[in-house]
Q: What sequence folds into this?
C-alpha cells in the first residue's frame, strides 16, 4: 500500500497547492551522524523547510557549526539544499543526535546563543530532577553520557550493587562508535550477550560515547577493569592515549563488522567467568 499512499499524498498536495518556502531559513531533521577521517563530523539530514547553503550557521540540539561542505547522497557538491531534499552536511563541531531538528541561524553569535539557552534549559531540568524527560544529545559530556547509561540500565533491568549481591556476574565495558546510531546498536548487541546467556551475566556499559578513544576513556576502563570496544572508524586520539592504554594494560578492541566484534566480546567476557 506504500505506492497508493505516496500517490494519495502527491494528489492531495497538488489539489491543496501545498508548497514549501525555499527562500526561508532552513530547517531539517538529522537522519544520522558520524565521524569521518579528514572531514570530522558528517551529518546526513533531510531539509523540511527553507534552504540550507554552504557557509550557513546551523544548530542541532546543543551542537552547531558552519556548513563547510554541502553534498547530496551521492556526495556531489550542492549550492543549496531545498525542501524534502536529503543532504550531507560537514561542519558540526560535535555529533548531533539522529532525529533531532536542525535550524539555520543568521549569524555565529545567534547560533551560540541558541546553544547557550538550550544548555541552560538542559541543566535546569536536570537539577530539577526531570532527567527522564530530557532529550539525550550525545556530545561527549559526562552528564549526558551518564543519562544514557542510566536509561540503558533501566531498560535492561540491572542495578550494579544489587545485582552483584544477588550473585550475578557483572562484566563492565566501555563502548565507542563513529555514530550515535551505531553506538546504541553495539550497546544493545553487547548487553544481549548477557541476557541470552544461560549464566547469570550482566554486561554493564560503564561509559558510551562517539568519537576517538581518549585518555578519559582509558582511565574509566582501568578503574572499572573494562575492555574498550570500538565500532566503525574510531581511532585513538593521540600517542599519549595509546601509551596510557599500554601502561595500564587496557585492551582496546577495534572492529568494522558487528559479528566480529561480538565474537571478540564473547572471548573477552569468558575471562570474567569463574573457572
A:
Amino acid at each position: 500500500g506504500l505506492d497508493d499512499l505516496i500517490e494519495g499524498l502527491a494528489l492531495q498536495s497538488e489539489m491543496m497547492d501545498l508548497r514549501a518556502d525555499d527562500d526561508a531559513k532552513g530547517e531539517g531533521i538529522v537522519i544520522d551522524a558520524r565521524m569521518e577521517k579528514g572531514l570530522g563530523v558528517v551529518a546526513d539530514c533531510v531539509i523540511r523547510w527553507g534552504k540550507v547553503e554552504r557557509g550557513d550557521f546551523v544548530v542541532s540540539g546543543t551542537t552547531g557549526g558552519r556548513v563547510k561542505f554541502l553534498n547530496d547522497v551521492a556526495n556531489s557538491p550542492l549550492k543549496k539544499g531545498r525542501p524534502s531534499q536529503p543532504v550531507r552536511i560537514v561542519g558540526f563541531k560535535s555529533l548531533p543526535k539522529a532525529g533531532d531538528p536542525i535550524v539555520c541561524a543568521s549569524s555565529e553569535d545567534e547560533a551560540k546563543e541558541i546553544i547557550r539557552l538550550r544548555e541552560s534549559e538542559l541543566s535546569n531540568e536536570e537539577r530539577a530532577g526531570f532527567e527522564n524527560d530530557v532529550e539525550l544529545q550525545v556530545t561527549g559530556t559526562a552528564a549526558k553520557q551518564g543519562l544514557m547509561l542510566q536509561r540503558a540500565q533501566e531498560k535492561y533491568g540491572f542495578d550494579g550493587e544489587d545485582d552483584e549481591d544477588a550473585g550475578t556476574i557483572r562484566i563492565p565495558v566501555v563502548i565507542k562508535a563513529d555514530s550515535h546510531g551505531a553506538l546504541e546498536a553495539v550497546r544493545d548487541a553487547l548487553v544481549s550477550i548477557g541476557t541470552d546467556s544461560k549464566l547469570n551475566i550482566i554486561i554493564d556499559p560503564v561509559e558510551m560515547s562517539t568519537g576517538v578513544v581518549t585518555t578519559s576513556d582509558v582511565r574509566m576502563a582501568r578503574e572499572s577493569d573494562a575492555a574498550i570496544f570500538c565500532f566503525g572508524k574510531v581511532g585513538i586520539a593521540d600517542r599519549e592515549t595509546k601509551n596510557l592504554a599500554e601502561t595500564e594494560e587496557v585492551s582496546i578492541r577495534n572492529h568494522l563488522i558487528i559479528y566480529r566484534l561480538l565474537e571478540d566480546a564473547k572471548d573477552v567476557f569468558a575471562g570474567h567467568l569463574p573457572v
Residues 231 and 258 are 7 Å apart (CA to CA).
